[in-house]
Amino acid sequence: MPTVQACLFDLDGVIVDTAKYHYLAWRQLANQLGFDLTLEQNELLKGISRMESLDIVLGIGGVQLDEEEKSKLAAEKNVRYLELCKQITPDDALPGVRGFLDELRADAIKVGLGSASKNARTILTNLDMLTYFDTIVDGNRVTKGKPDPQVFLMGAEDLSVAPEHCIVFEDAVAGIQSGNAAGMLTIGIGEQSVLNEADIVIKGFDGVSVDDLFEKLT
Ligand code: B16
Ligand code: MG
Q1: Ranges assigned E (strand) in 67-139
Q2: Nearest to residue 137, comparing CAs of 69, 128, 148?
Q3: Which domain holds residue 60?
Q4: To test ligand 1's pocket by mutation, which of 43, 53, 117 has the most ligand atoms within 8 angstroms of CB?
Q5: Looking at the structure, do residues 48 and 102 belong to the same domain, yes or no?
Q6: Of these four, 85, 87, 102, 176, which has the most CB atoms within 10 Å of its CB?
Q7: CA nearest 146: which of 13, 46, 28?
């Protein structure tokens, strides 16, 4: 395995579980339009941009709207989502992730964020985790969503690290595909059966040490 010089983290599902707030906000929008959204259907929205998510939600309800109406609904959903995100505190970082980031820092490995979210900085601020990241690539910077490799290639470039020396941590299939397409090693956070395109899959960071994990990649 090439030396690891940088680790690039997805936000939702890797650092913090914001999917539950996205779900509540999308469900409210669906209900307002006269249909419901199930938790299974919410899975389709993970790692996908806000406007792509809206198209999926409207598709589920069989609702057709023009661009202006869609922008208005997406903005309303975001206001609701951000209201829900106000309850995020430092205790909401997923188990073990803060310790894992501390270890990376101690090992002088650079750390970047690669998220589809336009709200990434707000969420990291609420978690009091902004200072862990040497660079943040979020939905405000990218022009192509995952599975395009752009988000992680931008992160590697910001950190001046070649892609083969980067590891991507992702919970979404599209995110693993994005990391693979960038020529990086990928670690799936979740279920092996879902994330089988990742180099390895772990359930989460609880009890996981950087050295043990990197050893598994060799
Ligand atoms: P926003 P990630 C993604 O975050 C979420 O998984 C996805 O459900 C959401 O639609 C997307 O961010 C955009 O979020 O509406 O806040 O811009 O997993 O890429 O960190
Ligand atoms: Mg995610």
Answers
A1: 110-114, 135-137
A2: 148
A3: 19-85
A4: 117
A5: no
A6: 176
A7: 46
